[in-house]
Please model this.
Amino acid sequence: MADTSLGLLWDSTRLRLLVELERGGSLSAAARAVGIGQPTASEHLRLLEAAAGQRLVERNGRGSRLTEAGRLLTARAREALASLAAGEEELSALAGLEAGTIHIGASTTPGVYLLPDTLGCFRRDHPNVVVEVEITSTGEMIERLLAGRVQLALVGETQVDDRIELTPFLSDEIVGIARPGLLPIRDGKLKQAALAEQTLLVREASSSTRQVADRTLRELRTGPARVWELDSSEAIKRAAREGLGVAFLSRYAVAEEIERGELASFRLAGKPRIERSLCIARLARRPLTPSERGFIATLTRCCAKNAEFAAACIKADAHAAPAQVQA
Model:
């Protein structure tokens, strides 16, 4: 049994040390992030381990990693720090001030095609709140959320465990795209057999867009002849414009190209629309700060305009005169 209660040692420096150790993978990096020397950091860790009665960190030649007990305590440390930050913001709000920092992550579709407009609106309404942004695939973003690198994540519909709370904020449709005239699209619909000779342009496996589209494509009796994996939606759209293949992307990612006539959109004949939700992801036990609540309100308001524009572009394309299929 430990001689000293963890509760007596639980101060913000030691909380931050555990969180930064998990993030950086070494005690020296964690010490620098917290702003203390490595000998002091080592002493803090020794005291925490003595109070816990077991090892919290395992050291190896490349750095340090948390044990199972260390990960458990770090999760609680992250929650405690989040509660303290929320309390500070609430006190500022009570005093008539508005400040704070939001660490936001986003997968590619919401990050590239929805987040910039939202951030512009949010900055005008909340000029004293600092926003830090990271963008990567849905799978990677969920890992960063769990590691404490971001506080909120805007992601496509995906599978998560009970550590993550997902709240849908916008409906999305995955639509097929191709160079105009490449495929026999009629009234916005394409027969499945027309994909048989095409190259399918896809994102990486951890992309929510790809995962949702793949579920539908696996049901097709006749699938695309080849698959090219590209590293971004922009690369996929450029390849599709050149007639190098077809793709399935979010309507928000392709609305402008469809409006300009650079890409034609289609749905699969005889199949339901490929739909998903875009969600706000956060740690289930972590309270929202006032500035985060303000950001979510702004996000909901701004995304309604994007949804109207994207839906109008797809509808107009479906009713356009059918293009001649190239020989």
Q: What stands out?
A: Confidence is low (pLDDT under 50) at residues 323-327. Residues 290-318 form the longest helix (29 residues). The chain has three domains: 6-79, 98-169+278-305, 170-277+311-318.
